[in-house]
Amino acid sequence: MCGIVCYTGTEDARSILLQGLKTLEYRGYDSAGIGLVRPKEPLIQLVREVGEVQKLVDKIALDGTKPATCGIGHTRWASHGKPSQENAHPHQDCEGKVIVVHNGDLEGHLTLKRELTARGHAFHSETDTEVIAHLLEEERRKGLEPIEAIHAALSIIRGTYALGVIFADYPEYIYLAKLSGSLIIGKASHGTLAVSDAPAILPYTQDVIRLRDYDVAVLRPEGYEIVAPNAEVLSRRTERLEGSVEDLQMDGHPHFMRKELFTQPSCFAELMRGRLDPDAGTTVLGGIRTVGQKLKEADQLILTGCGSAYYAGLIGRRFFERFAGIPTQVILANQLPFDETPITPKTVVISITQSGVTADTVEAQREAKRRGATTLGVVNAVGTTIPSENEGGVYLRVGTESGVASTKAFTAQAVALAMVALSMGRMRGMSLVAGQEVVETLKRLSRDAERMIGVSNEMSEIAARYSNAASMYYLGAGAFLPTVLEGALKLKEIAYIHAEAYASGEMKHGPLALIDKGFPVVVLAPQDATWNQTLSALAKLNAVGARVLLLTDSDNRDIGVMATDQVIMPPMPKLTAPILWTILLQRFAYEAAVAKKLNPDRPRHLAKTITVR
Questions:
Q1: Regarding beta strands 547-552 and 520-525, do their DSSP bridges make them parallel or antiparallel, or are they unpaired?
Q2: What's the start-to-end Cα distance of the chain, in Å?
Q3: How many H-runs (helices) and E-runs (strands) does the chain carry?
Q4: Residues 6+ away with beta carbon under 8 Å from 196
Q5: Residue 334 near residue 306, CB atoms below 8 Å
Q6: Phi then psi dihedrals of residue 475, to 5 deg
Q7: Which pLDDT score, from 0 to 100, does residue 492 have?
Q8: H helices within 10-88, ranges in order?
Q9: What pTM, to 2 d.p., does this model score?
Q10: What are phi and psi of 547, to 5 degrees?
Q11: β-strands 98-107, 91-92 pairing
């Protein structure tokens, strides 16, 4: 949620800021704004608008906003105060000499607001962010220089922040500060940029630094510095971003979600490139090598994440218990700090997150560390908070995922967990032959995914027929229960259809009461140990007149007659089938959204990156 773009240099900041904000639209937002400063003008100009970035672009084109070479921009997702121009960022102080953009969440901001109001400050928004602008105003009145004022203000506030700040009397400089969230700095040929997420900087440079927690930095047209409270200039390692500008293009697809769904075969290939060792029957994962002894000695594993990442953990749980023989729990990241499961130095906690900055998952990992656990991460975004604070892990290598509803990142998370589980299993006594069989299954995953995408083409017409449903059930059993949980989530996220997922055997324990003639139910019926349970559920659905969309790898006519619509799945390895079948449920949700003329890339009220708790 929320996006930050900052630029100072020799080019027109307006176009760079607006293009950057457009690139970050996938993060989710409800309003947008930019602040511009010009060297010979005493005040900063703010332009803000509710709705899409394009409305901001149109407003700037119409109101005659003049070029500027320094500015900050922001897309806001409402957390304090409704979407409005007044609540949109940037926010300013009383005199219009300080402007601030902010991702994060301040604790006790209402108390600070009352204190500042009592001291004569006038507030014009309902946000927590405006408090920061007024605190900076006070510190500057004391005669402090900008860096000193920022350190002083940050010592007063509590909570999380990624900040961009401009002071009118330093019109070429932009100041940054970070505690949680993400801020990335890069030098272009014509200036210096800072952004909250890598895609916005890729058109200008791939060589960047990432601010660490408690860093304060200053951007100048010619470069940047990170400055400690004692004025010492700090150094940070430069890294090269793995993404490319091509990740930001739709490549002929009508939506990013469709493109990302279709790229899953190549994502699997990239995830596993150089990481499979067929001879040794294991995976080569440098990110967990240093904790090998702890993995051997662990007596409990916890997988934690939110939303789709949590469901990836449910798939991964079976891999760890089967390969490594270790008791494994999956706990929602936002519940782990309150969970009473004992966590000890022999517990391994794996945090699963695409962005690496999901606030609930960051806090869950920190809580696990406080209790003494070994912490690992399965993350897509390189160098972010989760991997920087844990002891190791695996990067997904799937590139930018622009669709808010996860597709390629979700399936890659599940595959990455299988790879970690295999490595851990071989450390803990899994046989060479068993390990080699798993490696062979993983090696064919890209090819199997290509076949599933071909089958998913059947979903276009089928999904259109179900798109007018008000509510649906998804049924699966055993290893396929996480698959239907994720499928139901996708339908809710992008097609706005209420959907609930249940284990097939649970149908008779309550949910059946809501089914009447024509009620739509998606049923997954693989030919495995759950077959008879699924047949029993189908019989009950048939008896009450439900409308059944059946996904099965059986051509048994007895099961087919109980379905309204049926898709025959190609044979797939039992190990990876729950991941591969997800592709069809992703496509079903996507086609349902398209049939309803919704934008699947930007579901309402949702954000790609959740940086508040």
A1: parallel
A2: 11
A3: 20, 27
A4: 2, 3, 4, 5, 24, 27, 103, 162, 181, 182, 183, 184
A5: yes
A6: -120, 135
A7: 97
A8: 13-23, 53-63
A9: 0.82
A10: -95, 110
A11: antiparallel
* Structure-token pair, residue 489: 């989530």
Q: Name, in order, each residue with C-beta under 8 angstroms of 82's C-beta and a sequence gap of 6 or more.
A: 126
For residue 522, give the 3-state DSSP assignment.
strand
Look at residue 1 in the predicted model and tell me its pLDDT: 59
- 188 close to 172: Cβ distance less than 8 angstroms: no
> Tokens at residue 500, please?
């609930």
Contact 173/164 with Cβ under 8 angstroms?
no
pLDDT digits (tens, 9 = 90+) for 461-509: 999 999 999 999 999 999 999 999 999 999 999 999 999 999 999 988 9
| Token digits of residue 239 | 């890294």
Of 62, 63, 65, 4, nearest in space to 32 by CA: 4
Rounded Cα–Cα distance for residues 26 and 256 (Å): 9
Please list the ranges in the chain whose pLDDT falls under 70. Answer: 1, 27, 243-248, 607-613
Tokens representing 244?
């490319």
Tens-digit pLDDT profile for residues 550-577 = 999 998 777 878 899 999 999 999 999 9
Is the CB of residue 275 less than 8 Å from the CB of residue 268? no
Phi, psi of 219 (to 5 degrees): -100, 135
Q: Could you tell me whether strands 520-525 and 471-476 are parallel, antiparallel, or unpaired per DSSP bridges?
A: parallel
The DSSP bridge pattern shows strands 70-76 and 207-210 to be unpaired
- Residue 508 CA, distance from chain mean position: 36
| Residue 266: how many other CB atoms lie within 10 Å | 15
Would you name the residues annotated as active-site residues?
Answer: 2, 608
Identity of the amino acid at 547: R
CB 56 within 8 A of CB 48: yes
Q: Can you tell me the distance from the alpha carbon of 308 to that of 108, in angstroms, rounded to the nearest whole number? A: 31
CA distance 560 to 563: 5
Q: Tell me, rounded to whole angstroms, the distance of Cα 253 from its chain centroid.
A: 22
The Cα 417–Cα 387 span in angstroms is 15
Answer whether 367's CB lies under 8 Å from 337's CB.
yes
Yes or no: say if 376 and 275 are a contact pair by the CB < 8 Å rule: no
Single-letter amino acid, residue 211: L
* Residues 6 or more apart in contact with residue 190 via CB below 8 angstroms: 9, 10, 11
- The DSSP result for 194-246, as a single string, is EESSGGGTTTT-SEEEEPPTT-EEEEETTEEEEE-TTSPEE----EE----GG
Write out the two tokens for 128.
Answer: 């927590």
In 3-state terms, what secondary structure has residue 397?
Answer: coil
- Number of residues that make up the chain: 613
> Tokens in use for 322?
């089967």
List of long-range contacts for 17-21, beta carbons under 8 Å, 24+ apart: 17/71, 17/72, 17/73, 18/53, 18/56, 18/57, 18/60, 18/73, 19/203, 20/73, 20/193, 20/195, 20/200, 20/201, 21/53, 21/56, 21/73, 21/74, 21/75, 21/200
Q: What is the pLDDT of residue 247?
A: 66
Rounded distance, CA 317 to CA 472, Å? 27
Is residue 102 a contact partner of residue 161, using CB atoms and an 8 Å limit?
A: yes
- Angle separating helix axes 408-427 and 264-272, nearest 10 degrees: 30
- The number of angstroms, rounded, from the C-alpha of 434 to the middle of its chain's C-alpha atoms is 34
Alpha-carbon distance of 137 to 8, in angstroms, equals 22
- For the four alpha carbons of 81, 86, 91 and 96, in that order, the dihedral sign comes to negative
301 and 328 in contact (C-beta within 8 Å)?
yes
Amino acid 203 reads: P
